[in-house]
Amino acid sequence: MAPTTRRYELLSAAMLGFGHLCIMVGYDSGSFVLESVIHSIHERTPKAIGKYAGYYGQAVMYIIYMIGCLFSPSILNEIGAKYILICSAICFASFPLGFFFVNSYYYYFSQMLLGFGYALYYQGHGGYLTSHSTRKTIESNINIAWCVGCICLLLSSGILATVTHMTLDSREIMQNLKNSTEFEPVERRFSDLEIKLLFGVFLGASVLGIVNFISCPGKDVTNCIQETKKKGTFMEGFKQTCSALTSKSMLQLFPLFTVLGTSSSFWLSIFTTAMNFTAANSNLTYLAAIYPLSVGVGEIGTALFITQMSRRFKDFSLQPTMLIGAIFSILGFGLVHVSTPYDAPMRPTQEVPLLFGHSYLVISVIGVIVGIGDCCLNSCRSVICALAMPDRRAQAFSISKLYQALGSCVLFFASPIIPLYVYTIGVSIHLIIANVFFNITARRTQTMEKDMQ
Question: Is the Transport keyword given for this protein (predicted)?
Fold first, then answer.
């Protein structure tokens, strides 16, 4: 068999990133507005769906996600990374479909499918990267795939801005009617036309993701980290996953994995809901589009930066990147703390923030900072999972997502009753703890690699 080239690796990483882009355009964009969309539907037709179904649906999704993570390494072992990615993309496509005929039964069923698809996707994502990368190129390939994938945030911004502009007249009529009857500004509302246009685009992007994963190169690269070949039975793989749950490395990385769940859920859904629930933001028509645009700029710029630094400095994606991620994430929480009403995540509010309110500039700054922090934390997770347990990489990727889902699940179930300041202070402390334990694991992994040379 002819050896593969660096160009083949780059193509594989780029196509993996493009698939991520396609399915996450639908998922991330939907999450930015999900609770606000559900709240708008509930206001018009209370019997169709509960007003907090956005939060509770995502909590259900993460429960199935956790369960799926226990079995996804065994499924990967049976069918390989490429086919598991295709199956996951089909599950992602089922979710936006439900917004053309909203009812609680299909909504929660599609959230369950989405949770299972999420578990499959990230297992396939990690497996595909390790089978299409060498130890020398893994850090670079991870960040290339992440950089391409994060363009989804720029596309999300464009989609949200375009649909908002197209439906502006009907939305303004609805808003004015509410204002005239309530004599005070109301939170951001989504019209039926706006909802159908948004989720129609998300569905189309998910279908494109399915086609992309079908087209992805399947052959492993020469001297790859993890070959695509079946090892053992389905149940043997399941037992390995269960035993790895309590391994020393995974327990030390538990704070990192769970803080990824709490922080990403906050930035993706809870903070965006708080923006839309703040009555003072009702005239900031394009706020929902500005935020993902600025997050995308931060994510992509940081991924390019980490890629270049990883080529120059070995292990830059470990301790240095983790420190940068923690600092910027805590800074982002600080800005949210002083600029957002304390009860905005729980209900529509007219309360005032501590220091200053939201504006396009403030949200843009927060978004870029969030993007930098999130990219760093996710890069650290991907690299350490590929290196910390060389004999059980698939299980390490799966457990990282299981613990992440646990953090998200707890957060979403409690979201209707948790004020903003619990998030901003609690998750910041969580980040500091995660940084300490990550450094311990990273140093032990580096020592282990030196001993093996």
Answer: no
**Which CATH number do you get for residue 351?**
1.20.1250.20
Domain containing residue 108? 6-452
CA distance 435 to 427: 12
State the DSSP H helix or E strand holding residue 11, giving kind and residue range, or none if neither: helix 6-44
Any domain includes 22 = yes
Q: Max CA-CA distance within the chain?
A: 74
Quote the CA–CA distance of 107 and 113 in Å, as a whole number.
10
Position 180 confidence tier, pLDDT thresholds 50, 70, 90: very low
Residue 1 lies in a domain: no
Query: How many Cβ atoms sit within 10 Å of the Cβ of residue 68?
Result: 26
Query: Is residue 361 very low, low, confident or very high in pLDDT (cuts 50, 70, 90)?
Result: very high
Note whether residue 110 is domain-resident.
yes
Q: How far is CA 175 from CA 185, 196, 281, in A?
A: 9, 18, 13
Quote the number of domains for the chain. 1
- Domain contains 97: yes
Over residues 205-254, the pLDDT tens digits come to 889 989 999 988 877 777 776 666 667 677 777 777 777 777 787 888 88
Crossing angle (nearest 10°) for helices 6-44 and 81-97: 20
Closest CA to 116 of 98, 90, 150, 97: 90
Angle, helices 319-339 vs 420-452, to 10°: value is: 180
What is the distance in angstroms between the CA of the first residue and the CA of the last residue of the chain? 27
